[in-house]
Amino acid sequence: MNDFDATPVGHFLPLGGEVPLEVSDAGLMISRGTGRHIAREIPHFVLLFVREGTLHMEEEGRPFELKAGQTLLLWPGRFHRGTQDYAPDLQFYWIHFTLSEKAFEQASVSVPQHSTLMRPDFVNELFRRYLDDLDTGQIDHLGASLYVWMILKEIALVSPASDQRAASILAGRAYTHIRSHFHEKLTASGIAEALGYNPQYLSRAFKQVYNQSITFTIHQVRITYAKKLMLHSNYNIAEVAKLCGFEDAAYFQRIFKQLENTTPLRYQRLRARLRVNG
Predict the structure, then answer these.
(1) What is the rounded average pLDDT for all residues in the chain?
(2) pTM (2 decimals)?
(3) How far apart are CA 106 and CA 17, in angstroms?
(4) Is 85 helix (H, G, I), strand (E, B) or coil?
């Protein structure tokens, strides 16, 4: 069966084979707020995945800014270095690996050098499990190669050209979620968790598409519904606030004034006079 021997032996299925890459080292870097990435040129690939914060790198003079949920593939034989000191909140995974000639001959995926992941939490879990298995000695050469192959395949799902489309789809899902759940306890991080995405990546995608923050949009949707309730119901201000997802009536009134440049009570009275006069 091609490169794999899968002849059953008794009640067991023996599996073997190879993946056209070899992992040499890996780890998780958690910043202490000092230092920066070393300047060097090495004979293998380096894959970086930022879990939190921002990492500033350069390869052969080309700058890269990696934010949470983004990856960077540094090529062997190319000089790379960090261009800014590590921030205190920075965390990133790294893997060193080499590819065999077979990988280039049988290439089935194209991995972009710098990309924003569609499923950063999934890739984070792959890195975490790989390092856990490495620490406990529960992984062999083939297992390590398969982990990295899966990570590279996931990165290949998003090319630089499709980043904008992916962001647009994700932002649309977030907006739909807000419209459906605005009356509940709702936060940007809660929406990200519900959709299965990194909060920072979701916030960037949403701002890119709608040119406003998720929090502002939550307020906007809630206040729009509040105005409808005040025009077409007999609820008092505290009841309207609660029905729109605000736990505190005073906070509701403050947000209402920020968006509408008037208080809920004045808005309600003005609209009532307009209906009578009309």
Answers:
(1) 85
(2) 0.55
(3) 15
(4) coil
